[in-house]
Amino acid sequence: MRSKSETQTQTQSNTNTNISDASSTMDPILLLLRIVPFSFLRPPKLRLKLPTLTLPSPMTVYALVLLTYFLVVSGFVYDVIVEPPGIGSIQDHATGAVRPVVFMSGRVNGQYIIEGLSSGFMFVLGGLGIVLLDLALDRNRAKSVKVSYASAGVSSIVIAYVMSMLFIRIKIPAYLR
User: Fold this and answer.
1) Residue 90: which H helix or E strand, with range?
2) Residue 164: CB partners within 8 Å, gap ≥ 6?
3) Cα 22 to Cα 16: distance, rounded to the nearest angstrom
């Protein structure tokens, strides 16, 4: 281990070399531009107050995260880039009438706007069901509130699953059969 005097001597020599390295590598004109203006100019004494920013509430953050999740899973970016129609139409072979179609059947890589929004809503509904199930586990709530949360959570998850599977079967007719 080094003694205290050796450490101080080494630190002073390192500092001196760093200062001389900085001034020797710096352009002399730039050095003059840094020193000369401040020899006769004084910066003003400003009394600026920094703005205070308050943190958003947890529910605000949760709502923004949930909205972002909805936009991502519903294919918002795809809708902006490709600009598909809101709903499609198909001509009936028997009658020749044109009927509206919400799902782009047979095309996995394409979607109508309503198809993406409805699928995204089902995913968010399933996620909210999981959150409701988590709220039902709180010990500080009344039993009737726990039962309400649990039943709403389970029903939300079941509805979201059944509807998502129905959407997949409409989108891909021969899926899981």
Assistant:
1) strand 88-91
2) 119, 122, 123, 126
3) 10
Q: How many CB atoms lie within 10 A of CB 124?
A: 18
Single out the residue of 151, 45, 57, 168 nearest to residue 103, CA to CA.
Answer: 168
Which value, in Å, is the radius of gyration of the alpha carbons in the chain?
A: 33
Helix axis angle, 58-73 to 113-136, nearest 10°:
140
Give the residue from 123, 108, 29 showing the smallest Cα distance to 70.
123
Query: 90 is written with which tokens?
Result: 């198909």
Phi, psi torsion values for 53, nearest 5 degrees? -105, 130
Euclidean distance between CA atoms 23 and 53, whole angstroms: 41
Q: Tokens for 8?
A: 């101080």
User: Rounded to two decimals, what is the model's pTM?
Assistant: 0.68
Name the band, by pLDDT with cuts 50, 70 and 90, for residue 10.
low
Phi, psi of 26 (to 5 degrees): -80, 145
Q: Looking at residues 41-60, what average pLDDT do you find?
A: 89
